[in-house]
Write the structure tokens for this entry.
Amino acid sequence: MQGTSMVYTFDGPGAPERHTVQYFEIFGNRAIYFDGWLARTIHRAPWQTGKQKPLTEDVWELYNVREDFSLSNDLSGEYPEKLQELQTRFMWEAQKNHVLPIDDRTIERVNPALAGRPDLMGARTSLTLYEGMQGMMENTFINIKNRSSTIIADIVVPSGGARGAILVQGGRFGGWALYMIDGRPGYLYNYLGLARYNILAPNALPPGAHTVKLDFTYDGGGVGKGGTAKLYVDGNLAAEGRVEKTQPNIFSADETADVGLNNQTPVVEDLGIGPEATRFTGTIKRVVVELK
């Protein structure tokens, strides 16, 4: 394990320091501690949004921590050589610990397509799912954000009709669902819990095998835009409607994608809360999600 054990301080609180170097970086804010000295630069405050100044224009400060624990006396003007030494050491530590390249973006970093990094799906444009697959975190699920997509579900409706979630992603504070209620298939897009766009077929499906397809055509022109959702049953258009806004970066940090139920907070409030209330009462043969 990397790092310095602190066990030696348990029996000797006055023992000489062994952890003599520590780097820090988050969202472009950087610092380095070395042998009683601290150099830092505040690139952005957590509440600041929008485009930031280049990292190369950041102003560094220098402190003697042993004499100035509160970091109130900036010594960068008096000891420029010491500051340069610590800046060089920061870059060495950053390279050693895989900090580079430094990325000062915030929310965009959670969406691999926007951040410019590969995700688990790679170049895959289709994902086939089966009943019982649940608890799929967002980074392990195909990324449908900011683009057109199609969801095709092959289901069997029992006598008396079907109800429940076919495929959901996210929850009460953002997500989407292909579902059935009162025997009718529907699609609901939940924008951050602030707006819900619901497209619901007018007629209940009779017992038997059916194919329910949701075709979403993204408007384009940037991220977080809207689109048109069309719901098909057995190849015939059953309902359509607008989704005026979509979430560009993330649906949830902890809610998942689930087949045949909605595990956590509900995307579709009318289905109820939890896996038992939202469990699909028919049979799901398979669900295919395709990117366009």
User: Anything to note?
Assistant: The two ends are 44 Å apart (CA to CA).
